[in-house]
Design goal:
Helices cover 5% and strands 39% of the residues. The chain is mainly beta. A 6-stranded antiparallel sheet has the order 1-2-10-7-12-5, with no helix packed on it. It starts with a strand and ends in an 11-residue tail after the last helix. It comes from Enterococcus larvae.
Length: 190
């Protein structure tokens, strides 16, 4: 298992060992013991799975507020995505910054997204099976998001976002600046 630091505070890329031969491959996608040995000790309580049937599906940028905040461990089982996260923790050295990571069935990378980050992705291929573990249960009342097309964030999506396939809900999220008044994420307190 390899843990790679990123430019965003507390975000990690995880590379599990992959053993392949002429039949395919085997990987242990998660081991609580191995993660804890790397200082990544989370109590994941819920697994989520989404299927996006077309390239150009854009989901996000989502998070759970307050006590329902979630750390996520994300991976792609089929297809490929550009996974994007934005640090929304007030006082963080990387507050308001975003970074994107290619996650695919071929690179087997996983992304550890801490509480206090908005998260989204765009599919680069059709038939993307996207899985993630959460350390807290989903709460509809705590559901939140920021605009994927916030001009101040300037996210460099690899598609024409005017043609992105999105949900109605995702088209209505506030910008980060509009969200700031109700933002309860504070760096070092989550």
């Amino acid at each position: 298992m390899k843990v790679i630091e990123t430019k965003l505070t507390d975000v990690k890329i995880i590379e599990m060992d992959v053993f392949g031969d002429h039949r395919g491959f085997f990987t242990e996608s998660y081991s609580k013991e191995k993660f804890a040995a790397q200082g990544l000790d989370f109590d994941f309580v819920q697994d989520n799975h989404s299927l996006s049937s077309e390239a150009g599906v854009l989901r996000g940028l989502h998070f759970q507020k307050g006590e329902a905040a979630q750390t996520k461990l994300i991976r792609v089982v089929t297809g490929a995505v550009l996974d994007v996260i934005v640090d929304i923790r007030k006082g963080s050295p990387t507050y308001g910054e975003w970074e994107g990571y290619i996650l695919s069935e071929h690179n087997h990378r996983q992304l550890l997204v801490p509480k206090g980050y908005a998260h989204g992705f765009v599919t680069l291929t059709p038939d993307v099976n996207f899985l993630y573990k959460c350390d807290n249960y989903y709460s509809a009342e705590a559901d939140g998001g920021i605009a994927f097309d916030d001009p101040e964030l300037g996210i460099d999506w690899p598609i024409d976002i005017k043609k992105a396939i999105t949900s109605e809900k995702d088209q209505k999220h506030p910008t980060l600046k509009e969200f700031e008044a109700e933002n309860s994420f504070v760096y070092g307190e989550i």
